[in-house]
Design goal:
It comes from Actinophytocola gossypii. The chain has 330 residues and is an alpha/beta fold. It has two domains: 131 residues, NAD(P)-binding Rossmann-like Domain (Rossmann fold, 3-Layer(aba) Sandwich), CATH 3.40.50; 178 residues, NAD(P)-binding Rossmann-like Domain (Rossmann fold), CATH 3.40.50. Helices cover 29% and strands 18% of the residues. The strands form three sheets. An eight-stranded mixed sheet has the order 8-9-7-6-10-11-12-13. Strands 2-1-3-4-5 form a five-stranded parallel sheet, with helices on one face. The radius of gyration is 21 Å and the shape is globular. The mean pLDDT is 95.
Length: 330
Amino acid sequence: MSQTRSATVVVLHAHSGDTGKPPGTEALEELAEVRYVTEEGLADALPGADVLLAWDFRSHALAEALPTATELRWVHAASAGVNHLLSDRVKSSELVVTNSRGVFDEPMAEYVLALVLAFAKDLPTTLRLQHERRWRHRETEGLGGRRALVAGTGPIGRAIGRKLAAVGMTVTGIGRTPRDEDPDLGRVLPMDRLPDALSSADWVVLAAPLTEDTRGMIDTAALDAMKPTARLINVGRGPLVAQDDLVVALRAGDIAGAALDVFADEPLPDDSPLWTMPNVIVSPHMSGDVVGWRAELVALFLDNLTRYLDGRPLRNVVDKQRGYVREGAR
């Protein structure tokens, strides 16, 4: 199919690390004129460009640079979350925003299952005792019949629900749209039922987008509603959890433990008590990052860029006011 338009693409990347320049850019450069910039040069690179690939998922530079983007039509996030892009200026503009929904679903679900197993089978203690050359027999927990509450009913939450159900857990979801029968999450409860749902859960998994309704959803009141034997896993967004409240609850034994892959401030500050708490697993925002994930992100963007050039509908269009792709959308 012949392309009906051309494009100038600005690729916003970090200086180095995971969000440095994306791989496989030769295919991108065959489709469009490409300008590679870090956030310091974004405002100068945007004039005349119609597409922005936000490869740096930590940068909030678009908000300040947007007035120079006189031709910009479409912004694509190389991440599932788009909060770093959705300034008031972007929300009120005609810009189309898309994300990388679909790339991280199964890897994140596998990671959650690994964390559940690590806690249930007490693997942190096993590794510690091995390091100390101590032989200490223990009994561990089973998963069959345990109850898991999954907050977030998008593709990631659904993949998590399937994985946990596969090992015999009873799964319940909580989200925007309640329903009695869901193929992946069992029964889905509305957000106003959160206290009741927490009180019966052995495992609470957060995979929800960050919105005004979900920010701080796990606070002192929520933690008080949880069982003292329950554990919290957050692979969604750091601000879903009131972190100071969580530290207090963990120290008091109000819940049994937490596994956190995302934090309000990243990297997690050196002086955070979470680093050294024996009932906490800390990981550096890596739950969806399996070998080849960067190439998958590029492939998704290239598919969307081809659609853009051909005048076809884009995949993963985000509802800018709500901050996520609506269920059932392409």
